[in-house]
Amino acid sequence: FDRARTRRNSVAPTNITRNENDLTFELSVPGFSRGDPDITTEGNTLTITGQSASSDREFARQEFFTSTFNRSFTLPQGADTENIAARYENGILTVAVNLENTQRSRKIDIQ
């Protein structure tokens, strides 16, 4: 049997959607437990990192791996970093950032 590495650094594939009130990040991180990822902010930077628990099992062949990931995103000015919601379900980590304080485009009427 082939011996493969048991730890990999990877980039978690991410979908980002935006509506009028929220910026939502969906990261594909299958194999992680709810407590594995860490979500932090510093200034206007959102950082999401994770390290899955390593297994002490001896594999004859291993084709999926425990891994670590690290993603950082620059948030728009005025994003509410005090009220970030996160959930983990079916291998998808969803992080929602409130944008109610961000500047929106608007038309200025001339008097």
Quick overview of this protein structure:
This protein has 111 residues and is mainly β.
Mean pLDDT reading: 83
Strand content: over 45%
Based on helices, strands and strand pairing, what is the structural class? mainly beta
**Spatial extent as radius of gyration:** 19 Å
What is the tally of helical segments?
0
Task: Give the biggest sheet.
Answer: 4 strands, mixed
Using the alpha-carbon principal axes, give the shape. elongated
Strand order of the largest sheet: 1-6-5-4
Summarize the amount of helix as a percent range.
Answer: under 10%
Number of strands: 8
The CA-CA distance between the termini, in Å, is 79 Å
Low-confidence segments: 1-7
H/E series: EEEEEEEE
Could you explain the architecture of this structure?
By secondary structure, the chain is an all-beta fold. 0% of the residues lie in helices and 50% in strands. It contains no helices and eight strands. The radius of gyration is 19 Å and the shape is elongated. It starts with 6 loop residues before the first strand and ends in a 13-residue tail after the last strand.
Highlighted features:
111 residues, mainly beta, 4-stranded mixed beta sheet, 4-stranded antiparallel beta sheet, 50% strand, disordered N terminus
